[in-house]
Amino acid sequence: MHRITKAACVGGGVIGGGWAARFLLSGHDVAVYDPHPDCRRLVETVLANATRAYGRLTMAPLPKPGTLTFAGSLEEAVAETQWVQESVPERLDLKRSVLTEIDAAAPEDAIIGSSTSGLLPSDLQRDMAHPERFFVAHPFNPVYLVPLVEIVGGKGTSPDAIARAKKLLGEIGMKGVAIEHEIEAFVADRLMEALWREALWLVNDGVATVTEIDDIMRYGFGLRWAQMGLFQTYRIAGGEAGMRHFLHQFGPALKWPWTKLMDVPDLTEDLIDRIAAQSDEQAGDLTIRDLERIRDDNLVAILQALKAGNDGAGWGAGALLKDFEARLQSEAPRPELDLTGPLRLVETTVGPAWIDYNGHMTEHRYLQLFGDTTDGLLRLIGVDADYVAKGTSYYTVETHIRHLGEAKLGERLDTTCQVIAADDKRLHVFHTIRHCVSDRIVATAEQMLLHVDTEAGRATPAPRAVLDRLEPIARAHAALPEPGGFGRKVGAAKG
Ligand SMILES: NC(=O)C1=CN([C@@H]2O[C@H](COP(=O)(O)OP(=O)(O)OC[C@H]3O[C@@H](n4cnc5c(N)ncnc54)[C@H](O)[C@@H]3O)[C@@H](O)[C@H]2O)C=CC1
Ligand SMILES: C[N+](C)(C)CC(=O)CC(=O)[O-]
């Protein structure tokens, strides 16, 4: 099966840069071809934003980023690639000629996607010698955080290309949704256009300002859409009687004059001036770069919240993130076992969702980090997802955390684990969280875990295979100095 080792991005603007970042941060090499003189700076700016966002998005060990190169020609960029993504401006003639050039130069087994927002794939592939490997892969800005890609084949596209695209998108944490029928603007932009048109009318008619419309979305229905979409949201709005009742109750309103959707407002200079001026006022002092960072932090927080949703099983885009993290965990190279000191197991960045009303990392995130550290140790001794699926695992039965410093937004932290003692049922560990830069200790945790039969809910001896990995660590750590704060109990000094 084909895997991506190198991707090419032809066109390195907002979207091409986003694709490049997505591939690079998933560990794949990327060659960008874009004749724009400022292309390198623009792609590197997108990559800097993406790297910052990824540091906050996931606790899973990210792969070593791929190598970014800027090719001097399209032919050079697409050489030895498995995926070529075209993201040049939205003009049929330009895209057609660029795609035909890509088709002539790319390796035989490479697949070719176009980022077009609405042009028909059959029109785009018309002049290609190998149209079967071409499809629309319509992404969403920022490509490095929003996972959806609409995959649309044209008349000449082979089902194999669509299947490969979906699989390869999964490897880079994206969700390829294949759309059977090719229509202009596909599905997402059809929906967004409808709303956009209505919003333009509301501004045009002086009913609402740009800020009011955005507030109405972000304080209201926009919150619902990110997690349940349109139909499931309305199903719930029908009460216990569900969708059928909802349709009967609100269906007649569709015939009332509630929308102007069928007409398109003229984008007169006057309307453009009005929207641009209101948009400037709305942004205030915030630059596009400021807004990008705010947007990215909010998207990260939303994705993390959705990952924790549905009782921890993940929901929607959060379930996808959870699967992506599981894949990263399983593919991460196992660290070299250095037994000369406590094991370094987790490195992470304090994300926005971790900050409390005191402006620093909130207490339950410490427990999360300590839990992730324990998980890191367990994976090292063979207790991974497959092991747990077979019916035994370790449960934490006691934890004592000491908070010794503060951790602020964006700071890098790492954790270590010292095994204090272990036998066939018990595992006694001492974890430490430090600031990566200053090495200052932020918190420690002492934990006792028991090896359990998860079905019976009772302690049971760990198998020899696990103990064979655990015991050498425990023996080496027994020779280390006792960590500061070990065995301390909670209590006010008696006066
Ligand atoms: N901006 C957005 O929100 C979204 C855009 N798209 C689609 O992505 C595509 C690109 O759009 P953006 O990145 O927004 O445009 P952009 O204007 O930011 O970038 C286009 C880039 O293509 C380069 N270019 C022009 N001719 C070229 C050629 N012959 N070979 C290589 N590079 C060439 C330009 O120098 C420019 O850097 C369009 O098809 C658009 O519909 C898709 C989803 C969202
Ligand atoms: C404005 N747009 C049509 C180019 C938007 C898209 O295609 C997708 C997005 O990111 O909203």
From TrEMBL:
Principal location listed in the UniProt entry? cytoplasm
Biological role: Catalyzes the NAD(+)-dependent oxidation of L-carnitine to 3-dehydrocarnitine.
Assembly description: Homodimer.
The EC number on file is 1.1.1.108
Name the Gene Ontology molecular function terms of this record: carnitine 3-dehydrogenase activity
Alphabetical list of InterPro entries matching this protein: 3-OHacyl-CoA_DH_NAD-bd, 3HC_DH_C, 6-PGluconate_DH-like_C_sf, 6PGD_dom2, HotDog_dom_sf, L-carnitine_dehydrogenase, NAD(P)-bd_dom_sf
Q: Which UniProt keywords apply?
A: Cytoplasm, NAD, Oxidoreductase
Catalytic activities = carnitine + NAD(+) = 3-dehydrocarnitine + NADH + H(+)
Q: Quote the CDD domains the UniProt record gives.
A: 4HBT
Q: Which residues form the 3-hydroxyacyl-CoA dehydrogenase NAD binding domain?
A: 6-179
Q: Does the keyword Heme apply?
A: no
Where in the cell is the protein located?
Cytoplasm
Q: What does the record give as its pathway?
A: Amine and polyamine metabolism; carnitine metabolism
Question: Any keyword Cytoplasm?
Answer: yes
Q: By its UniProt entry, which NCBIfam families does this protein fall under?
A: PRK07531.1
| Family of the protein in this entry | Belongs to the 3-hydroxyacyl-CoA dehydrogenase family. L-carnitine dehydrogenase subfamily.
Domain (3-hydroxyacyl-CoA dehydrogenase C-terminal) ranges: 186-253
Supply the name of the protein.
L-carnitine dehydrogenase
Q: Where does NAD(+) bind?
A: 11-16
Q: Which organism is it from?
A: Rhodobium gokarnense
